[in-house]
Amino acid sequence: MEPERRCGQCGKAIPWGQVECPFCAERGTFFWSFRRETFLLATLATLLLLFVATGFVARLYHAQEQSLAASWHRRGEAELRAGRANAAIEDFRNALVYARDNTQYRLQLAEALAAAGRVEEARNHLLNLREAEPGNGTVNLELARLAKRQGLVPEALRYFHHAIYGEWDDDPIAHRRQARLELSEFLLRSGMKAEAQAELIALANDLPPDPALHAQVGALLLRAGEYDHAAVLFKQALRLQPNLAEALEGAGETYFEMADYHNAQHYLERAVREDPNAPRASSLLETTEGVLGIDPFQRRLSSQERARRTVRAMKQAVARLESCAASRGIPLAGTSAPTPLQQLWARAQEVQPQVRERVLAREPDRIAPTMDLVFEIERAAEQECGTPQGLDQALLLLARGQGGTRP
């Protein structure tokens, strides 16, 4: 019988027919399996740590990029505000190196290019942005401004309307209102009053309770010749802020243009009290007072005062006629083919005996035809010698109002 063999490692008997100790072999397999799983876990942990570290580094890199982009952007804004457009261009371009897809930076680059006179470059940048976002209100407004600057009226109108009805990131109502205001200004400067009136009336129907904005739109309506709507806007502004000088002056000028000189005087006097250094309001008030002081058709005047004003108006008109004729070298008497000025002078000489205060006070029916002759003289003198000032201007204003404030 073969002697019993014992394992030299663990001391246990090795069964007959086996070469190695089964106990040690089983334990070795267990430990090998344990070591392999540990290795795999360690490898996964290492990979996870590397992934986290890579993400952290990437985020750190992108944060650094954003910081650099923001820094260059702030510099560009400062340069642009200071009027250094060329420096701003470089700053915005540097910002775009780190933030290539930032629409705001590209818009401001276009703005800087336009400020530097590089209009076509600015336009190309904006068109690229518009291609990506056709409804972007800001981009369309900038394109409208460029077209306006180049005198491209149809193109400017198209982009203005795209801006008005476009999409805005914040406060779209206020941005659309501003775009419509700019469009209205552009239409007025282009002589397109009817179109401007339509835009301004639409704008006036949707204004917030802001007195300055009401006065601004009212002033544009005044320029557009929409006096009734302008008067409404100025009154709304004054209800919100009773002493707003711009609204007082605007209301006074509106009523002046409407030949409503009593209301004009009321608002212009208030405007001058609020701002004694307002030259426009002061000049209009002086003219308005001249009109009201010479108009014989005002209500509640005595017959004597009507007669006095009519006599004064005739004397002023004849003096204007004679001065105008002298400046043109036109003799007023003794010609076989009289000119319009000569004919009017002859008519004035003919009625002079009746143009006396005592006669006109006794026969007030003579006042209207006498004033009609005064108006004819003033119109003819204006046509021959240009627009007058002072009392002659007041008489012309009465003439244009078809007799002033006749009852």
Architecture overview:
Strands 1-2 form a two-stranded antiparallel ribbon. Helix 5 packs antiparallel against helix 6. Mean pLDDT is about 85; it is low at about 30-35 and about 405. Among the domains are: about 205-295, Serine Threonine Protein Phosphatase 5, Tetratricopeptide repeat (Alpha Horseshoe), CATH 1.25.40; about 305-400. The chain is mainly α and about 400 residues long. It is rod-shaped, with a radius of gyration of 44 Å. It has helices spanning about 20-80, 85-100, 105-115, 120-130, 135-150, 155-165, 170-190, 195-205, 210-225, 225-240, 245-255, 260-275, 280-295, 305-330, 340-350, 355-360, 365-385, 390-400; strands at about 5, 15. It has 18 helices and 2 strands.
Strand order of the largest sheet: 1-2
Strand composition percent: under 5%
Number of helices: 18
Q: How many DSSP E strands?
A: 2
CA radius of gyration is 44 Å
- H/E order of the elements? EEHHHHHHHHHHHHHHHHHH
Biggest sheet descriptor: 2 strands, antiparallel
User: Which class best fits the helix and strand makeup?
Assistant: mainly alpha
Coarse morphology: rod-shaped
Average of the residue pLDDT scores: 85
Question: Keyphrases for this structure?
Answer:
rod-shaped, Serine Threonine Protein Phosphatase 5, Tetratricopeptide repeat, mainly alpha, disordered C terminus, 407 residues, two-stranded antiparallel sheet, 1% strand
